[in-house]
Design brief:
alpha/beta, Rossmann fold, 7-stranded parallel beta sheet, 21 helices, binds adenosine monophosphate
């Protein structure tokens, strides 16, 4: 097999490859490096961990010239990836003294100006911040020879297409382009068609154990509605095999019981069960007799189950790595998986930390329209009636006959259905949560995220003013305020969340003359600049 010494690479680059301990090229490198050195555009299907960064980094480093200005640009979806890619290329280019700079949102732009002043040969960046630099004239792409779109599918999923297009329009036509993506879906191929020149396609089979989570989303729900929302997600998604995570053993037990009562075959799995009980649960699960496992983190740790299609975080994990361990259980062996989280309003900050930790934004999903919800509820009611009618009905059969013969037949039937429906998850979820969240105080407070930040003209004083004028809240009931660039967080009593959202939708930006009540600020009010 081809090794690094047969690829026509510069001695200084070979020395660094050697120093980094790369003995043989990985499959993506074997395929990509010779094509890239021959000057071809390359579209590669490869995931992180396959050595893809070096597969474009090595040929680019082999060609760039020290001191000749910006020659290569790598676009990445997240700052974490940008930093990682920058470090990998910089370390390979160390002996050649190639200057590689990462530019991404969230880092001081001044610092980046200084970095750009040192004329890096290679820049790695996220599309938004790059565009920002282009607009400010701090980066010029005129001398660019190599362009890389890394994790293209991620960038498209994150809505970066318009930004990417703007960056690409500024790149010289005569250049070599590389595109890497975990999946070569149609949108990615389209991008390649528009911006690449007869690209060679290179594919690497994902390793057996590669995690390929295609979708991670969350629902924002009040804690009282979690069971109901879970049932609706199960109706909607119809997961073949799902793992539902609860925070406590008791919670897992209760949730499994309620799901069974609602007609969703589920088993609990937690540390208080004997080995025999656990084996039985696993056997039923493997045989497909139950499709839902409700587990605690500890119980799920040692599980070896293939083909889980959905991981549902009924309760969010308490630590950030916990999230990765949980969702890593879906989408195994290259299959797609879905991870759904139920997020209570006061957990928004935890959710943002998780997103930051995994370097990926989760999609917020709304519950289906009330029409769909009604359709699903109807199905559930009919299913329950059908199940109950399989058992002997005795005196109720007689009573039904009497009602059918009476004039009130339809009204009575409607009343009975209403009672049955009202006995559905909502009530039980209350019960469940009363027991599970014993420590929740009556006056529970939530950190609400509002889509209004400094860019929308928001500041702490205006936020207090908006809430005092637009809701039933008094200034003293408003807690911590944090204003960020495009959003803000405010701490309010849990039962006022809807009002707060409603007021935020009506916010029209700064008014010329602030209202008279503006001076009052809530307790603990402060602004954190990000
Ligand atoms: P990547 O897929 O680019 O995220 O790379 C995954 C890891 O593999 C990184 O830590 C690289 O430094 C490392 N790596 C890249 N190429 C090789 C190679 N040929 N041999 C050993 N490790 C490598």
């Amino acid at each position: 097999m081809l090794d690094f010494y047969q690829m026509g690479l510069k001695t200084d680059l070979l020395k660094m490859i050697d120093e980094k301990g790369y003995e043989t090229p990985t499959p993506i490198q074997v395929q990509t490096i010779p094509l890239a050195i021959a000057g071809r555009d390359v579209m590669g299907q490869a995931q992180t961990g396959t050595g893809k960064t070096a597969s474009f980094g090595i040929p680019i480093l082999n060609k760039v010239q020290k001191g000749q200005g910006l020659q290569a640009l790598v676009l990445c979806p997240t700052r974490e990836l940008a930093v990682q890619v920058c470090e990998e290329i910089a370390s390979l280019g160390k002996i050649m003294r190639i200057n590689v700079l990462a530019v991404y949102g969230g880092q001081s732009i001044e610092l980046q100006f200084r970095g750009l002043h040192r004329h890096p040969e290679i820049v790695v960046g996220t599309p938004g911040r790059l565009l920002d630099h282009m607009r400010r004239g701090s980066i010029n792409l005129a001398s660019l020879k190599y362009l890389v779109l890394d994790e293209a599918d991620e960038m498209l999923d994150m809505g970066f297409l318009p930004d990417i297009e703007k960056v690409l329009e500024e790149c010289p036509r005569e250049r070599q382009t590389f595109l890497f993506s975990a999946t070569l879906v149609e949108e990615v191929r389209n991008l390649a068609r528009r911006f690449m020149l007869e690209p060679a396609v290179v594919m690497i089979e994902p390793e057996e154990k590669t995690i390929a989570i295609l979708e991670q989303c969350y629902y924002l729900v009040d804690y009282r509605q979690k069971v109901q929302v879970l049932c609706r997600i199960l109706d909607l998604e119809q997961p073949q095999v799902s793992l539902v995570f609860c925070r406590t053993k008791k919670g897992a037990d209760q949730l499994a019981r309620i799901l069974n009562r609602q007609g969703y075959p589920a088993d609990a799995l937690h540390g208080d069960m004997s080995q025999k009980e656990r084996d039985n649960v696993m056997l039923r699960f493997r045989q497909g007799r139950t499709k839902i496992l409700v587990a605690t983190d500890v119980a799920a740790r040692g599980l070896d189950i293939e083909h889980i299609t959905h991981v549902i975080n009924f309760d969010l994990p308490e630590d950030l790595d916990g999230y990765i361990h949980r969702v890593g259980r879906t989408g195994r062996a290259g299959r797609s998986g879905i991870a759904v989280s139920l997020v209570e309003p006061h957990q928004i900050k935890l959710l943002r930390s998780i997103e930051h930790h995994i370097g990926k934004k989760m999609r917020r999903t709304e519950l289906p329209s009330s029409e769909t919800a009604w359709h699903n509820q109807k199905e559930r009611l009919l299913k329950r009636l059908n199940q109950a009618s399989q058992n002997p009905l005795g005196i109720y059969d007689q009573l039904a006959q009497e009602i059918i013969n009476s004039e009130e037949a339809q009204r009575f039937m409607a009343a009975a259905l209403k009672m049955l429906a009202e006995d559905e998850p909502e009530l039980e979820s209350m019960e469940l949560h009363m027991e599970m969240e014993e420590d929740i105080p009556d006056n529970m407070r939530a950190h609400v995220e509002l889509p209004l930040g400094r860019s929308q003209g928001m500041n702490p004083r205006r936020l207090v003013e908006m809430l005092v004028n637009g809701t039933t809240l008094k200034a003293g009931q408003i807690g911590d305020i944090e204003i960020q660039r495009n959003c803000s967080y405010v701490e309010v009593p849990m039962d006022r969340i809807d009002e707060v959202y409603a007021a935020s939708y009506k916010f029209k930006g700064p008014r010329k003359k602030p209202a008279a009540r503006s001076g009052h600020q809530g307790k603990g009010t402060q602004e954190h600049l990000n």
